[in-house]
Amino acid sequence: MVPLAVLLAGVRLSAGRGAGGRALRMCAEPRGGPAPAEALKRAVEIGFPVGRRIKYGLFTDTVEPASIPDEAERRRLREQAAADMAVIGADERQRRSAVGYAGGAATIAQAGNWDVDGGGIAPIGDQKLAERLRSRVNEFNRQGLVKAAAITAAYVLVPEAVSLALSRLG
Fold first, then answer.
1. Same-domain pairing of 147 and 163
2. Is residue 54 within 8 Å of residue 88, measured between CB atoms?
3. Fewest C-beta atoms under 10 Å: which of 83, 118, 145, 149?
4. Which of 65, 63, 72, 71 has its CA nearest to residue 91?
């Protein structure tokens, strides 16, 4: 499936062998519209205005000019981000991790409490109903874990298999 941003950018995709002939790569060629990099640059300019930063993944916050590192430090941080393959800084990762833990704790804290009758979240008085709901939720979670494991295994195994097959073609 071609990403919507690529379609909107008006490009033609072509596939070929990558470095050493082992990997598939996609090449975008302009076709009467801006190159994908230009479309992405415009989207970033709109979504990430100068003087603002992303906070908690959804919100923006004003950047204090005094907190902006000098050019040498920014270069070092970009090089470190490239080496770590990270697109967000350590402070934002810590914030998002804290939100994730808080959400997990809230989920555990409400276990056994449901809004069964539209009157608000409360403990379920009917123990048989509570057990059936808990069983259903646990089965849903188990299936999700199995699906996530299968998708992860495919992701880990398939790229290598595709790479090996392509290297044998050339």
1. yes
2. yes
3. 118
4. 63
Buried b vs exposed e over 107-139: b needs ≥16 C-beta within 10 Å?
eeeeeeebebeeeeeeebeeeeebeeeeeeeee
Give the CA angle between residues 155, 92, 110 to the nearest 5°.
80
What is the tens place of the pLDDT at every residue in 51-110? 888 888 888 889 888 888 899 999 998 899 889 888 888 889 999 999 999 998 988 887
The number of distinct structural domains making up the chain is 3
Half-sphere exposure (Cβ direction) of 145: Cα atoms closer than 13 Å: 6
Provide the token pair at 61: 């916050």
For residues 170 and 149, state if they share a domain.
yes
CA distances from 138 to 101, 111, 113, 132, 145 (A): 20, 11, 14, 10, 10
Is residue 164 included in any domain, yes or no? Answer: yes
For residue 114, being part of any structural domain is answered with: no
Provide the 8-state DSSP code for 66.
Answer: G
Which of 37-41, 148-152, 164-168 reaches the highest mean pLDDT? 148-152
In a domain, 101, yes or no: yes
Q: Over the stretch 93-110, which tens digit does the pLDDT of each residue have?
A: 999 999 999 998 988 887
